[in-house]
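User: Modeling request: complex.
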Amino acid sequence: MRIVIIDDSGLRATVLEEGLREAGYDDIHIVPPRGAFVARLERMAPDVVLMDLGSPSRDTLEEMLTVSRALARPIAMFVDQSDDSMIGAAIDAGVSAYVVDGLRKERVKPVLELAVRRFNAFAKIQGELDEARTALSDRKIIDRAKSILMNQRSLSEQDAYALLRSSAMNQGKKIVDVAQALITASDLLGGGI
Amino acid sequence: MNLKIAFLPLNDAAVLVAAREKGFAEEEGLALDLVRTTSWATLRDRLVFGQVHAAQMLAPLAVAVTLGLSQQPAALAAPYKLGVNGNMLVMATDFAKALEPDVAARLADPLGTAHDFAAAIGLWRRKPVIGVVHRFSSHSLMLRYWLASAGVDPDKDVVLRVLPPSLTVEAMRAGEIDGFIAGEPWGSAAVEEGLAETVSIGERIWRRGVEKVLAFREAWMEENPETVDRLLRALARAAAWCDDPANHVALSDLLADPRYVDQPAELIGRALSGQIVARAGEAAIANPDFMLFSREATPFPWRSQALWIYSQLVRWNMVDHDVATAAKAGAVFRPDIFRRALADSDVAMPGASMKVEGAVDLPMAVGSRRGELTLGPDRFFDGRVFDPERIEEFLAGFASPR
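Assistant: Request completed. Predicted assembly structure:
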């Protein structure tokens, strides 16, 4: 069974491909939805196409499925329309799958289930990454605010941080918000660092 | 009651956004959860598989899904139109050089421009690739109608490439398409970047062209009459607010929010106020009917408009004509629900549910169950009229483009 993953995010496609290979599928191709991806897909003649439900290129893909003569006409994203929980899980996970006509649903279901699990796993990783990134940029902002205080008020680093923290607590705000306000004010006043 | 409604980032999400942000939904005891979606396929799937209660849908797509032409068939119902008009056809500045250079004259004469366009195709280095947002979109049907009037076969003489509105400008920049027709603000965004010029606007092709509808799954709509009525009342008030020129700046600011259209308010405002910049750096051209939300009973779902859509699907071989299919297509628009929901409101209520489309030249007072109702001019640019009782005759009037 030839499976094509259409995906913008290299990481998510890799997470999915890995899972499929572990499950014993070995004819897997990743195509980013850019440029002439439709023509590439046509040449590959896939049995199953997996795509992020949030991808804006779904309309382009579906149009190809409608007009392509090269492809045996694939059917809709969900093989077993009676399986509501599967459909719900797929949409929640953001998976859409197009399956070539005639492929038995027992063969496709494990692929779809695996895609759902992997998409969910990816979303979790992504969430953690975003959190880590936010934490990092928060720290940079706080560091800059600290150095402004150290310069302007001749405080030690520790005291500068304590001052930020107590101001935040007094105002019921996050430290990073107080720090950002301080940086903005300092920039406006031409304070520099 | 919490209602999930899917939408695409376009100006004609305005009524939904205003209903939520200006308190009209809240007044009806509804909390709207607007779900931003980037493709029509995903909007359709969310609606068909019950992940949202309603959606801002291309009117032809609602018909197509009901007729089983677009993936999983499902009976959809459209009791309310979210707007009329609002599309713009833009082409690469190089391509537009072969057209009338005075852009105001170009827009004012869609028939002449269609013929210039036909000639320009021969001068272009390849078959022009024109982006359309979906096979089953009003944009695509109007573009086909317009091209065919000048003898251009839209399936042979040009390449129609489907891509969602939010990718159009990027595709222009990459040279993947030579132009596109889409809802605003995307055409204006391409013009502003100097990538394209306006070639035609929807309002000049069909002066009151059916556009987005509020679509439900029919079964859900029938099971939840009270909620549906509340929503329609909220939308009707939101639409009146959106139409008021005094609110256009506030509405542009609302839509510019990253949760909605996420484009500059100034670009969004052009279509709302009908001040269209057709070429970067030039003065705006006034098109006061560029986009309508409320006046002239805009939200009323005339069955004849669903049937016009159907006639075009037949014309382009997307569906085979028979009486039962026509009836099914016409029944997607639900004036009966509109009447029920807005019975006690001050919304002007047409007496009929069908009309001859394209027959009004000048603003005309028509039979109304309540209040005064004046319909605006609704001519097609080629002067044809569509009598929904005579679909075959209408179709026979088109020379086969093949």
